[in-house]
Design goal:
This protein is mainly alpha-helical. The protein has 4 helices and no strands. Helix 1 packs across helix 2 and helix 1 packs across helix 4. The longest helix is centred in the first third of the chain and has 16 residues. The two termini are 18 Å apart.
C-alpha cells in the first residue's frame, strides 16, 4: 500500500466492508461525515482498521482535520512514506 491509488482502493474497500456503503458512493471528493454519514465512532473504527493495515496509527489530532476521503488518503500516504 504505497501509492495514493493503492491507499484509495484499500480505503474504499474498508469503507464498503466496515460501513456497508455502496462502492460508487466512495470517491476522493466524498465527505466522510456528510456524504458517507460516518460518525465519530465510525471514524475510530476506521483509524483502527488503518492501523491494522499499515501497522501505524494516525494520530487522533491529525484525523480531526480530515473531512474527505482524499484527506484520509493523504494522511495515510504521509504515514506510510519512509522518513526523508
Amino acid at each position: 500500500m504505497q501509492t495514493r491509488e493503492d491507499i484509495f482502493n484499500t480505503l474504499r474497500d474498508a469503507l464498503v466492508e466496515l460501513f456497508e456503503l455502496e462502492p460508487e458512493r466512495v470517491s476522493l471528493e466524498s465527505n466522510l461525515y456528510q456524504d458517507l454519514e460516518i460518525d465519530s465512532i465510525d471514524a475510530v473504527d476506521l483509524i483502527d482498521h488503518i492501523k491494522r493495515q499499515t501497522g501505524k496509527k494516525i494520530a487522533a489530532e491529525e484525523f480531526k482535520s480530515v473531512r474527505t476521503v482524499s484527506d484520509v488518503v493523504e494522511a495515510v500516504y504521509r504515514l506510510v512514506q519512509p522518513a526523508a
